[in-house]
Amino acid sequence: MAIQSDIRLYGFSLNIVKQCGPALSDILNSKFSSVATIEGVDVESEPSFAQQKRPTLGEEKRFSVRLPAGVHVSVWKADLTTFEVDAVANAANCSLQHGGGLARALCEAGGPQIQKESDIHVNTHGPLRTSQAIITAAGSLPCKVIIHAVGPQLFYHFTRSDVLAAKPLLEQTIWSILHMVKQNHLDTVAIPAISSGLFNYPLQECAQTIVSTVKDYYERSSPQEHLPKEIFFVNRDEPTVTEMEKACRQILAPHQPYQLVPYSHMVSQIGFHAECAPPEAYGEGIYFTGTVKKAMEVWKEKNDQYLYFVVAQVLTGKSTLGKPGLILPPAVGPDPQVRFDSVKGGSDISVIFCSYQALPIYIITCKKMF
Length: 370
Prior knowledge:
single chain; alpha/beta; Leucine Aminopeptidase, subunit E, domain 1; Phosphoenolpyruvate Carboxykinase, domain 3; 30% helix; elongated
């Protein structure tokens, strides 16, 4: 049952509320899950983002890749208030009081309709839960709609266990955004590093969790479902853009390792095959190395005069250490249907178990000199 308290303001406390009303409402909500309504007080707002004439941030693409499902994913350094997409994801709080950070920037640029619709939703349905998302109109923003998503918030002095507990909530937050995209048949969506910054989620882990979740979501999607054309990871500040780019290159980008094959025409005829593998120290799969030198070490028993090294793009995805006898990657957790994408042996050997994860690019022919 909700409890309502009326607090009268006098003197010094009245001046504080006049100067910091939106920020105070935000703090009360994030710390105590309380919704504060300020009545009869003329709140002195700071100069708006438009009034401050913020310098326009030029849009800069840092990374782009196409997922197997056909969805493009890209990383941008840009301003979400001017980014032209179907939907922009907003890092919201539970009460949808957009008083600071990205939420305030979107409201300042988009006009009062955004906060008005948010207030109507909270008054009708109550505050949002962590990981929940809703859609409102975008006002005068160049996007069509805003997806307000509530990511997990950590205390300033968080522990490792706090991060581990928050990770599933951040994953569910991203799922909620992508579900809204599917449900509303949106073609493009811009997603910031939700829960980083003011919500204290460690930036590197935040980026990795967001990127991994997008990858997992579209790996599980059916071709019959609506799929967007592109997911944009958009942030203004350089450290966040850099971490998002790193995470995408690590998790999404195809690698170009090497494999030794017995005949140069073999790959074009039958593709990559586990029978070309060296002694199977890390599983009965298809082996690749990061350099020709390492390939020579791995396939050291080959005594042919000509050696053929295939350079390939390989989707290694989420990987774990391999072991002898594996015919499939091991399960990620208790569910045997959810498995790693590949296994590895040290820092320079990758093993896949499905040939469609590798695309041959070109062949290097080497001749042994006796």
